[in-house]
Amino acid sequence: MAAFLDSVPISGIIRIRDMMYSVDKPFRLDQGDVSFDAPPSVKDAMLKAVHDNRTHYLPTNGVPRLLELLAEKLRRRNHLPVTGPEELMVTTGGIHAQYLACQALLEPGDEVLVPDPCWPPTASIVMTSHGVPVPYTLDATRGWQPDVAEIESKITSRTKAIVVCTPSNPTGGVITRADLEAIAALAIKHNLWVLADEAYEDFQWEGDHFSIGSLPGMYERTIALHTFSKTYAMTGLRLGYLAIKDKTIRMRAHKVLLYTASNISSVVQFAGIGALEGPQDYVEEFRKELFARRQIFHDGIVTNAKGILTSHLPAGAFYNFVQINPEWQSPLKSEHTSLSWAMTEYMIKAGRVGCIPGADFGAKGEGYVRLCYARDRDELKGALESIGKILTRT
Ligand SMILES: Cc1ncc(COP(=O)(O)O)c(C=O)c1O
Questions:
Q1: Domain 2-31+282-392 is of which CATH architecture?
Q2: Which fold has domain 40-277?
Q3: Ligand 1 centroid to 12 CA: how many Å?
Q4: Which residues have any ligand 1 atom within 6 Å of their CB?
Q5: pLDDT digits (tens, 9 = 90+) for 326-383
């Protein structure tokens, strides 16, 4: 059974990260990490936990106070009809929450409809759970919206779930409420689950974030996937959570949590309590700053990469998925046949600018590169100047 893992891909994001280590003074616009540091409420709570000797085993699903706060947050912010903390589990980041969900839900050969383009681990996690990812298109010409009729056309007797990721990594697209309602109707009609990846729920620039699990009849068929990584600048601390109403699926997820982690790091869970109990104005400051950087970065691409890269202001998340002029040719002797890999290689080798080739996010991402604008303003400025220089040479 283990050999099937040989065919599960490792995301290009990791290959790029390794390439970036050999670059002198790099501009790290490749990874989805914010430049901010975690708020003092997070650090203080973690240090206090250390000094209070909170270093022992914990209940597998999480510290009761953290689970209570999260249940309350999901009810208040996401409008999910969560009955109580027993429906929740904390995980080692959002990626682990996805892993638990897929392991708990999928039988071998079950199909999962996954957006294309999509954050690469989503499809790979489906595969590690012996499932089959089936892409559905996000349409660049319509702000990366899904076509609900196309989603329905891909449903077969093997389909188990639909992944909905809004705001989206890599596109920055936000699914409209009408489309979320239509996807929910499909899920109900065809008796499907929805995996709702809400990693960027606090970074939506157009309209308010809306959780599909809050629609009537949806919470019981939705697995809500959340993370502290982006909202509280806690990427390295690794704290995520998920909510599952269904007792059977929840018990399966609980076993996966138990046998992969026993419990999530105690001090990190206390950091999570600090994040939720502490002032939320840090999140508001992060939001405001990212909103400003979105415009700065967009304007910089429009000015510095004219004719070669096309930018649209993203509606959410903190990525700009820029389109590469198909006529562009790399001045490097590139071994890559893919335009997005050739551009990525050129950006890194000639400009020291990290980015991720669109092809890594799925077939529909080819012709684009993803740049993260959550880096600090100096780094963005340096990257934009460098892009300007190297692209006027081509
Ligand atoms: C769409 C999406 N979902 C989930 C995650 C999981 O994040 P983490 O495991 O760092 O909490 C990420 C991280 O980049 C993401 O982009």
A1: Alpha-Beta Complex (3.90)
A2: Aspartate Aminotransferase; domain 2 (3.40.640)
A3: 15
A4: 32, 93-95, 119, 165, 169, 197, 199, 227, 229, 235, 240
A5: 999 999 887 778 999 999 999 999 999 999 999 999 999 999 999 999 999 999 999 9
